[in-house]
Amino acid sequence: MEQLNFDTIILGGGPAGLSAAIYASRGAVSTAVIDTNMLGGQPSNYLELENYPGFQVIGGFDLMEKFEEHADKFGVHKFPMQEIQSVDLKNKIVTTNEYEFKAKTIIIATGAQPMKLGVSGEKEFVGRGVSYCAVCDGAFYKNKVVAVVGGGNAAVEEAVYLTKFADKVYIIHRRDELRADKIVQERAFKNEKIEFIWNSVVKEIKGDNLVNAVVLENVKTKEISNLPVNGVFPYIGMSPNAELFTGQIEQDSRGFIVTDETMAASLPGVFAVGDVRTTPLRQVITAASDGAVGAVYAVKYLETLKEAVSA
Predict the structure, then answer these.
(1) What CATH number is associated with residue 49?
(2) Within its chain, how far is the Cα of 86 from the centroid?
């Protein structure tokens, strides 16, 4: 297995990882970005972004392409589509199916993924009526009826997007009001294709070969009802992609990595940025900001190592 050495290894090539790569490489340290997929992260699947400063509206893929081009300008080494076998944070070693990477600092930018409903039928019908990406799968539901579960920005924005294809979109929310930004809510309330089902949770996803209904429970009355739908899109929150680091650094009760304001994790020379860490807001702009801060302090950490050697 080929061994590669870098000053800084960044795990994850989304907005946090690519931002970190830009700042680290500008700090004159050798930098590698490793990802299990193509670079770009979750925003690459977003049809449009309208809250990233400088772009009134821009496609998610287009924005992340600009991030990647910016990283290329500073000579960042990119390793997409790597199967990560193990990560030794203490010794700063990352092993993939192709390489053994060694570094002096590691920046974790592995992001988060949509949380599962955890109900009967969800796992069984993934790809057959259950989807976690409206942009990816929305076109399959032309002239059909779908349900979006959740009440935050992601849920409401994806519901509005799905009205481009579906005849009817239900938004199922466990509360009696949405958590989404007001401007996002207004678009949904004005959309004639969207109907809200309040104070309700999904108890089961039913179907034969494909999804044909969800079983709902009203959290106040406990009434059980059957809602005919062709598709279900859960958007109920995020869980961190941090299983590889469990037991090596401090994580909160949900598995998110705990950092200080410099993005330093509990192990010297290890930083966590973006959606994988404890943070009050998970947006492209905050991920990019985290990446900048984490990389700057990773470079400072490398400077202390040099000073210790020369002392």
Answers:
(1) 3.50.50.60
(2) 21
Q: Tokens 């990802």 label which residue? A: 35
Q: At residue 174, what are phi and psi to the nearest 5 degrees?
A: -75, -15
What's the mean pLDDT when you consider all of the chain? 95
Whole-prediction pTM: 0.83
- For the record, the structure tokens of 300 come out as 């400072």
| Coil/strand/helix, residue 25 | helix
The last residue of a domain, from among 207, 234, 261: 234
268-303 tens-digit pLDDT: 999 999 999 999 888 999 999 999 999 999 999 999
- Give the Å distances, CA to CA, from 262 to 23, 74, 131, 278: 14, 23, 36, 13
Neighbouring residues of 234: CB distance < 8 A, sequence distance ≥ 6: 114, 115, 116, 117, 122, 130, 132, 148, 149, 150, 202
Q: Are residues 59 and 91 in the same domain?
A: yes
Residues annotated as catalytic (active site), given as ranges: 133, 136-137
